């Protein structure tokens, strides 16, 4: 029973957030099997991340700034971006800007769910710490995914002259936010909560705006409106 409770508490936040982002797709919902596949890709990303992070620590050391910006944020966001670009970016199902947000959030939440499961399993965490992790690391990864996906959506539906610019932003911007998040945790060991909470509020506020703007740029928005008028 304890094992079941640990697994359930670790899986619930990521699956709940994934469901939320799936339902936020207003005009042309993605095939559920595609979203699940991308979520599982996020799960698989954990293993190369762990290997690369171990190698980076042995090479560069574990200084908090290096750990935050390169070992944690840099490697994690780059590999998630790598999967998005090489597997999702040119996929036929990626047919509206919001799809970038959904798929990037799915990858991030797959990654965060495994991370959460490992933490719960090895620490035998109680409800309080697991609830805090749902509000912070899992939610944080979701927001980094929203930011990444927002700019990838821009890149997918922009002209060639702007495509590289938005692709660069799709990695750089979530990397900066993720690095800032980790810097707060690693450097402000006693007062981190006073900085993390405002940061998360800011990320969620900005993320909700990006979701709304991405939906508003959907080509299916006008098709659906015409169908409603005709009926």
TrEMBL record:
**Chief location category:** membrane
Q: Which Pfam families match?
A: PrsW-protease (PF13367)
InterPro entries linked: Peptidase_PrsW_arch/bac, PrsW
GO terms in the biological process aspect are: proteolysis
Residue ranges crossing the lipid bilayer per the database entry: 6-23, 35-57, 69-89, 101-122, 134-153, 165-185, 191-208
Q: What is its EC number?
A: 3.4.-.-
GO cellular component terms, semicolon-separated:
plasma membrane
Superkingdom, taxonomy of origin: Bacteria
**Gene Ontology MF: a single term:** peptidase activity
The keyword Ligase is assigned to this record: no
Q: Give membrane topology per the record.
A: Multi-pass membrane protein
Is DNA repair found in the keyword set?
A: no
Keyword annotations of the record: Cell membrane, Hydrolase, Membrane, Protease, Transmembrane, Transmembrane helix
- Enzyme type, top EC level: hydrolase
**What's this protein's function?**
Involved in the degradation of specific anti-sigma factors.
Give the family this protein belongs to, as stated in its UniProt record. Belongs to the protease PrsW family.
Q: Which PANTHER family match?
A: PROTEASE PRSW
The name on file for this protein is: Protease PrsW
Q: Please tell me the species this chain comes from.
A: Paenibacillus ihbetae
């Amino acid at each position: 029973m304890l094992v079941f409770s640990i697994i359930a508490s670790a899986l619930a936040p990521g699956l709940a957030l994934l469901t939320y982002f799936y339902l936020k797709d207003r005009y042309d919902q993605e095939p559920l099997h595609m979203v699940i596949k991308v979520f599982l890709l996020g799960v698989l990303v954990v293993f190369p991340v762990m290997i690369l992070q171990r190698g980076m620590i042995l090479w560069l050391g574990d200084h908090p700034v290096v750990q935050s910006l390169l070992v944690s944020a840099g490697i994690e966001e780059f590999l998630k971006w790598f999967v998005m670009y090489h597997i999702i970016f040119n996929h036929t199902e990626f047919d509206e800007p919001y799809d970038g947000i959904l798929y990037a959030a799915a990858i991030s939440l797959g990654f965060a769910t495994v991370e959460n499961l490992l933490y719960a399993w090895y620490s035998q965490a109680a409800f309080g710490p697991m609830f805090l992790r749902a509000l912070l690391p899992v939610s944080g990864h979701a927001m980094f995914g929203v930011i990444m996906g927002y700019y990838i959506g821009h890149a997918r539906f922009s002209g060639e002259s702007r495509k590289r610019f938005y692709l660069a932003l799709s990695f750089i911007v979530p990397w900066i936010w993720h690095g800032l998040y980790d810097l707060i945790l690693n450097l402000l060991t006693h007062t981190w909560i006073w900085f993390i909470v405002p940061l998360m509020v800011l990320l969620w506020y900005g993320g909700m705006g990006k979701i709304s703007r991405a939906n508003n740029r959907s080509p299916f928005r006008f098709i659906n409106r015409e169908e409603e008028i005709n009926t």
